[in-house]
Structures are given as C-alpha cells and as structure tokens.
Amino acid sequence: MKALIETIVMPLVEHPEDVVVTIKEEENKIVYHLQVHPDDVGKVIGKNGRIAKAIRTIVYAAKNNENKRIYLDIM
C-alpha cells in the first residue's frame, strides 16, 4: 500500500524526494501518514480537496481483505 501511495503522489509533486509515507498500525485500523514538501501540499490536496479525495478512494479500494480500516492523512 505504501508503494501505491508513493506511485500516485510522486508524479504530482515538484519535489518527489521529499515524499515520505509512514505507517501506524493499531488494533482495528492502519493509518498512512503522507508528508510532502510544503510547496507541494496544494498539488496533493487539489482544488476543494478533489485530488486528495481521489487518492483516498484508490487507497481504500485497494485494501486487503483484513478487518482493519485504512486511513490516509496528508500532512
């Protein structure tokens, strides 16, 4: 899942070397924290959050059949 998030986000940003995805796994959920360069935050979020919503939709659709919920936080 981490590779999927990086594959989606890196072409969108001007500083792909600053894209960092960290994983925090809890009992009933998995949280992916996406950090990008401050200049690229607007490109990842998009107008009215459309790009962020699309990224989240893809990530949620690609989840495994585990009983854990998946969340994507954009820092």
User: Which secondary-structure class do the elements indicate?
Assistant: alpha+beta
> What is the percent of helical residues?
25-40%
Principal-axes shape call: globular
Average pLDDT metric: 92
* CATH T-level fold name: GMP Synthetase, Chain A, domain 3
CATH superfamily grouping: K homology (KH) domain
Strand content: 25-35%
Summarize the helices and strands and which ones pair or pack:
Elements: H1 2-9, E1 20-25, E2 29-35, H2 41-45, H3 50-61, E3 69-74
Parallel strand pairs: 2-3
Antiparallel strand pairs: 1-2
How would you explain this protein's 3D organization?
The protein is of the alpha+beta class. It has one domain: GMP Synthetase, Chain A, domain 3 (2-Layer Sandwich). 33% of the residues lie in helices and 25% in strands. The longest helix is centred in the last third of the chain and has 12 residues, at 50-61. 8% of the residues are buried.
Care to give the gist of this entry?
This protein is α+β, with helices and mostly antiparallel strands. It contains three helices and three strands, in the order αββααβ.
What are the salient characteristics of this protein?
globular, 3 helices, single chain, 3 strands, three-stranded mixed β-sheet, 75 residues, 33% helix, alpha+beta, GMP Synthetase, Chain A, domain 3
